[in-house]
């Protein structure tokens, strides 16, 4: 069972109606997690095997998970007609179709000014700006599409941010510890899988916990 699916299902049993996931990953793990728990999710496309770009209000649901994939997805392709479509569970790339993922390089930011990235990033920005708190799972704080608005909200409005990860990146440490964040909880793996190092804005020294709470599954054992 996907730990992410457990978390989303738990959250949507409260008064929360919409959950926003902003990810730089190309994989479809977030979609699989939603489908495993039978949760309605929206990625910018319609439903079905051959999916086309659509507005969020084209398909309504009382509860929804928005998955904003700012660098594209493994199932996004440019069709022979020139539009962007999504194809699910295919064995290979159909003839005439071109994968649509934004890889690191000189063309990265140029491509994100094109559709569907422009609309997806705009929706991600709105989700980040309107959020009351953040949970970052394995995020390295190395993406200029996401963290400026994220950290501006944390610094100016003291919005709570929780980070769980295998190892805090140097960029994450600079942003959180040296950047002036005032309401944070950061957890990384300790010396073993069953040890965690906890950093908090409430204390100056890190706390070593002899339990796995740095992974999503471990973190859920702490809060659920």
Automatic annotation (TrEMBL):
In this record, what's one Pfam family?
A: SIR2_2
SUPFAM superfamilies in UniProt: DHS-like NAD/FAD-binding domain
Q: Which InterPro entries match?
A: DHS-like_NAD/FAD-binding_dom
State what protein this is by name: SIR2-like domain-containing protein
Question: Which organism's genome codes for this protein?
Answer: Azotobacter beijerinckii
